[in-house]
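Order emerges. For instance:

***
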Amino acid sequence: MDMVDLAHAVVVTPPDRPEPERRAIQMLVEEVERRTRLRWPVAHAWPVGDAPVVMVGREADLAPLSPPSVEARAVGPEGYRLATAPAAGAAAVRVSADDARGVLFGVGRLLRALRGGRDSAGVPAGFDLTTTPRYALRGHQLGYRPKTNSYDGWDLTMWEQYVRDLAVFGANAVELIPPRSDDDADSPHFPAPPMAMMKAMSALLDSYGLDVWIWYPALDPDYADPATVRSALQEWGAVFEQLPRIDALFVPGGDPGHTEPRVQMALLERQAESLRRRHPRAQVWVAPQGFSAEWMDTFLTILRDGRPSWLTGVVFGPQVRLSLPELRAAVPAEYPIRHYPDITHCTRCQYPPPDWDLAFARTEGREPINPEPLRQAAIFRATAPHTVGFLTYSEGCNDDVNKAVWSALGWDPDAILLEVLRDYARYFVGEHMADALAQGLLALERNWRGPLAANAGVATTLAQFKEMERRATPGDRLNWRFQQALYRAHYDAYVRRRLLHETELEERAMERLAEAPRTGAALALRRAREELDRAVTEPVGLALRARLFELGEALYQSVRMQLSVPRYAAIARERGANLDSADAPLNERDWLEARFEEIAVLPDEAARLRAIEGLRRWTDPGPGGFHEEPGNPARRPHLLPAADPDGDPGASRTPRVGFAERAGRLAWSRYIETLYDTPLSMRWDGLDAGASYRVRVVYGCDSPRRRVGLTAGRGLAVHGPIERPAPPRPLEFGVPAGATADGSLTLTWSAEPGAGGNGRACQVSEVWLLREEPA
């Protein structure tokens, strides 16, 4: 590839430009020096001699500074033209735009296009790109609060670097969080008080010309009380007053907060007036998150009948009971829809990974390092056409790759994903890592697809990263983005190694139990326990585990990632602190050993032997029966319909897999679920039309007070709405005789209709359909 050598380039830019343009030039010079050691001088006139020139500025301001070399071209808001061409006998690169943001994004694209490294820099010859963003809003929530797994440890210098990093991939907005939210008031990691940091971040974003949004939950219990409203106006107004820039206010209707829509909208009208006294052009957005069916109807009626002029638009985020297309159709057209996609969580969230293995959910948990470029691109492409853009929901830098994917696709939905990842690897780590790391990030995503025990690719992924590490420079090894990928590769491999080992130990324990009629119950139980305990007494993967903890320390030092509660003062294990769960049991050891204790104290040997046999045959449904775990994709042949993570990524109308903290059998930590009023169904054919059947079921226990009912066939009651047991346990019910008269059976679970909140009620972990023998 022919290159334009820019090792000795001079940056030519118009003088006396507004601060955002000066910041863009500063970013260019400093980021080039950071990556190459080359310090490009800045001039305001064409230099004497034949030094390469990098021209940067608005099109109208560049013309007087340079010989004509590139035809002027209008590019539109935020767009830019990046082109190489000789001028006055010198090589030249021209970054031109119609506005300050275009200058910033053009600089970002130039930085992504640079090739080279230590003491060298260049761009491909003949480069000519004119582009404008497809979506007007492309941003990310950056909450300086204890709940995050890294952000609360960042000082303003780290924030500025991250703001630059986001802008390089096309982000134009950042959403801040006020000092009072659904979080602790303080963090041991805070380098500055929350309000002081919020002010500084608002000013920082303003200096780069980027939009400042505020996510502001309405947390008080009763906004129908005038005194509460006065207090809220004063509290929010004090925040509005202190921030130098606010472009938009976003108030969620729930998650957190819980205020009836009429009351909430009345409050927000007052807050909008208060906000605009200080920031006259600020927008106001609201999300119907957590609304019941009744509240959603009320909210939509307010929009349709009242057409509130103070409201700018509606946000689609987690816990909205309508799908995004349904919400767009229901909201009057004058109100745009903004997406608030959750790109940071893996369980109990808006877009959980499909077919995620239970072993990962048990160990890596809710907020792991989660590069998922292919899935995030699929979610973006399925949802973006209904919106004007997005500000993602993020709770730490664990989702950094996902941010880059959303930013790049928000600019150009047709971008080639592999090229986005190569840009990511090249820009953040180095040219020498561009392809290897890009492929490695895709491999990490493949690690998470399907049954882990069968995924031999996990070992291949680790080998790829070990080879990258072997070739890495000292700077690469200090780079937090490379460290994150290394951590995930080692974590995945450690979990798989343990899963294979502990699965084998459980199988051996069952073999020991099978010997009970010959050896006696006591000896069989002791030998089975010894087999299970080898997970602790004879651990595997110790070298992987040691490296994992080394990388955890490196990530705390480099980017303040808090991967452990006792080591790094993370706020909770589920907030990304998965060093603390790396050794969580991956078989039924805990549940089995608890059963062993119960069996050991039974009054006679016959009872003990029967109980042992019951354990061994736990999943045996008997002649003519069926057993399945519908949360396990390999054990749910009768689920209707199949999950559809591509066509319905938020599972608005189709089932999805969910996970909860372990309670009882390991299998009960995973379940199939549907959301809100969507029923959950299973169907069996080929049954004995003359036989009677019973159904045994174990319900998931996330939000157990949400009641669920079960019907058979065409509405025959199996049981009415009940609270699900917590902790889980099997429940058994007779199937109405008429439900199987034609040799088939459909079971349908339904939540009580119209509920709000997170919508998670229909959750089934284990199902037996048992054929009863005639009396």
Notes: The CA atoms of residues 395 and 717 lie 43 Å apart. The two ends are 83 Å apart (CA to CA). The longest strand covers residues 760-772.
